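[Q] Does anyone have a clean structure-token version of this?
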Amino acid sequence: MQGVRTFAPGRIELLGNHTDYNEGYVLSMAIDLGITADAKVRSDRNLLLHSEQSDDGALIPLDAELSPTKTWADYPLGVLKELLKKGVKLGGCDISFSSNLPLGTGLSSSAALEVSTALAFLGLFGEKLDKLEIAKLCRAAENNFVGVGCGLLDQVSSLFGAANHAIFLDCRSEEVEQIAMPPDYRWLVIPCAVKHELTGGEYNERREQCYEAAKRLGVPALRDANMAMLGGDIGMSDVVRRRAMHIVGENQRVQAAIPYLRKGDMKDFGALMYASHESSRTNFENSIPELDQLVDIARKTPGVLGARLTGGGFGGAILCLVDEAAAEAAGHAIAGKYRDQTAHSTTPIVCQSGAGAQILD
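[A] Here you go.
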């Protein structure tokens, strides 16, 4: 094939904040926004990367030792390295990326970039991997090449998405289930207009604190812990205990949410979202004042059933569950009050569930 176009959606994390690398449970949803990759074969053994959103590109000899560039190009380069490591036969190509997915808002643009790249390489050179293999390969690219210790959530969400469905991921068994959702609701993503950068130390620090908590509790991962185990004198600092409390609570909230989705009880689902954010604020401390302020405004806005930060935190955006008919008005009202209170301008994004990553032609 001389040319191929692929699309990979971003995702919304509905519930299950930071549970993925703790072998826990997550509910997510692929959205109708994402990254498109246009790829064509070259006559030489070079890879040319270009993005419509960036002036800097990269021309990389395919047979050279790949090293991180500390730019956006590291995500596709990491995918390239993992594909070559796997023995996939690739040739030179040009890949140009375009996106309608806002960057730095916790919608997992990095995973969408990785997945669109992987599908472009595979489609262009006639290679096949199943969805879960692709997800694991893209996670390895981010872990090993970019240096962010993410779990499997973002890549699975991008690949397994379906319209009017949430995605349940058991991060230990790697079981993926699509769960039908009622169609007459929308999801508002509201950026806080504060820089979001997960290659800093906070994400990896939280990960290490979770691993420390599991070790001190004598369990393989925090998925195996419960709240009773976190009471009393258990030989861990208050900070590490609170990190564990967040993960244990999030796993419980995901499990409680699934029956609500199945019977269309979105009011109780929304209450779990508020509880999740409060735990992020007090226990995991991956919220920031601007995100807290947005959630507080959303809670008082007609039509909003629930709100919480989404994604890694430390900036980014909140997610609101909203009645379909109220979505535009609620987004406008929240943005206006937030601007009045903070002087930050934000543009709400109205999302709905979308199809998973695919080769378009």
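[Q] Thanks! Anything notable?
[A] The CA atoms of residues 8 and 357 lie 4 Å apart.
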